[in-house]
Design goal:
Order of helices and strands: HHHHH
Helix content: over 70%
Number of helices: 5
Radius of gyration: 19 Å
Distance between the termini: 19 Å
């Protein structure tokens, strides 16, 4: 698990650095030279998707999803487990939907508007990362009750 966390951390760092670089080059080019960076929107759209889905397994493994502590503190432990299982199910459905959408992108050879980058490989990667997140969430939900979700 440590290797996966390290790899995803590096992917996030590289994607964030690349996104910031693209924005700076685009803004400087646009306002100083009246020449924006061609394909900046394409690149940032892909990079943001990478950041969101590479971060999802990390957030899931660390149980750092946004939650309303007022409510979780009042819930009995069995309800914590039910919500964790529902979360795993939602992530699994999202993974399936992403995979089928990626297949559609591949079938139509969909590409980004400016740079003409194929979209399907990125969508497949997002689906795989969603599967990893769903598996992690399921593992967390099935832990012994002393380590149940919501109990840190």
């Amino acid at each position: 698990m440590a290797h996966l966390e390290r790899a995803l951390g590096w992917i996030l760092a590289i994607a964030l650095t690349a996104s910031m670089t693209v924005v700076v080059i685009d803004v400087v080019g646009r306002y100083l030279f009246l020449s924006p960076l061609k394909g900046a929107d394409d690149l940032n759209s892909i990079l943001i998707g990478i950041m969101v889905f590479a971060g999802l397994p990390l957030v899931t493994a660390r149980e750092d999803h946004i939650r309303v502590d007022l409510l979780t503190a009042l819930m009995p432990p069995p309800l914590h487990r039910i919500f964790a299982l529902v979360g795993a199910g939602v992530l699994a459905v999202m993974a399936v939907k992403l995979w089928t959408t990626a297949a559609i992108f591949a079938g139509f050879n969909d590409r980004t508007p400016m740079l003409r980058l194929p979209i399907a490989p990125f969508a497949y990667a997002m689906a795989v990362l969603a599967v990893i997140s769903a598996a992690l969430q399921l593992a967390l939900a099935l832990r012994p009750s002393s380590l149940a979700p919501g109990r840190r």
